[in-house]
User: What shape does this take?
Amino acid sequence: ATTLQSSISVVAKRHWVFQTSAAERDAGCPQHCQNRESTTARSIGGVLASQSTVLYTTANSAGRPHLVWSQEVGGREGTLIFEEKDESCTVDVAVTRDGKYATINSNTRTSSEVHLLQTDRLTDAPLLVRAREPLVEYYVDHAHGHFYVFTNVGSDREYKVMLARDFSPQQWLEFYKPKDGFVLQDIELYERFVVLYGAKDLVPVVMVMDASDVSKELLVLCEEDACHIEKSHTTDFQSSSLSFWLSSPAHPPRLYTFSEQTLSVPDHPNGWESKYETDRHMVPCQDGSQVPLTLVYRRHLLRKDGSNPMMVLVYGCYGENLYMGYQPEKLCMLDRGWVLAYCHVRGGGELGRKWYHAGQGQNKQKTFEDLHACVEYLHRARYSQPLLTALHGSSAGGMAVGMFCNLWPQLVQAAILRVPFVNVIETLTDSSLYLSSKDYEEFGNPNISEENLNHILSVCPHSNLKPQDYPATLVWASRADDVIPFSGVEKYVKKLRRCVQQHRNTTSSHMSRRLDSSDKLYHRGSRIKSLIPRGSVLFHVDERHDHYSSDRSLHQKFEMVTMELAFLHKVLHLTLEQLYHEVC
Assistant: This one.
């Protein structure tokens, strides 16, 4: 089978158009095909499994991908080959690196099940690799006459790589098990080598092994100043070279190329490495756990007297790592004296699957306690102080920020919530939302027991709002968000504003006012006038962009960032010199 670079484009939420690359057309593949009127549900994605057959998935009315179809290129009708009836599962399709197999992957948040099809025998019934087990994840690829199984099977529940033979994909033998604190995160297969991606002590690691002799390590790369790794995602299985990018909040992506057992390392611009510092700390918690914390700052601008503004970023959910790649606005902040603090709290995946499960389900409170420990540690160490500290959380990270502001509002002056998951109880009690059924593994199902209901109420930011002195808050939400219901965010904002007003009425504090077009941010003087008082709640409603802002233009993204930076400077009462200063 040909290794493919094609894509599925979804048109009008009902139809897809399959567009092949120029190289594939040269190899005899058609330029495009489409499903015309054969599919009534929304097409999600697919693959060209052979030169004549497309496999694709469709979703139900709630948006859950659950059906897999096979269709001949140019044909009018697709054939249903797989249906996933479990409401907590979503389905996707893929082709193995060597093109010999198609995989049908049915996943929940914490478990998976894979079926196989040979690409030269797509009319056969899909073969189940291994029946689903609670808390066992596995993902299958194929090369060198073996199946490579990336899985967390075993008592340790940590990711490892197993091998299985073609004629017996259900029987697994250990291929690679991490040790010495190495956290395995991904695997990539080439004809000549096997690539493992992971991290040790939060530092990205790339390990390249000889495919003909896996005991022979061709490369082990560990760059201390890097915080994020991005694969090249090449589909050329036969390529003799490997490329990837390393970056950090202070460093734009650098392209590394490994070819002919030689690593090409990019030159660093003059002074590039010396300007910024990346520190990694382990913060003690009340229960004895150590929480990883990454600090990034511009070296000669850090005063450690509590006078630096600081942004604390958090996610801590679904076993996902907090994003620490390059973002231009973060570099802008560093050049103006900001400290960026990335808190790798329980519920995230930075320290492996055990770390994830330690902040999941009934353990969710640990996520908030870890964030609290990190913020207090930073203040004690005088990296900043409460009046100059802002929290930032996106999506599920908004849950941690929202609960922190409920529990310890006095420790921060500002909070930014991007498309936040803050009305947890309302979302999870609505079983018609397919993401609700997926999230039952993450938080519990409030519809089946009072214990679950009470637990979710205890960790839901909306449910725990109360009249008190909240930090100034900027909330982003979109009416077109297909992940987090807009209505839940809107109710959170309304309740938060009521609680702020009740507190102000009780304490006879100044009345709140809304930021409007008459506010002047840029003017002469040592400080920014029209400052945003503590407790203000700004709500920015987007009418059309999705949850991930994937369809935002570069200009629109800059507008979002500019608004956040203006908000922070007004709330933290920063000087115009700090706003305009260009560091040489």
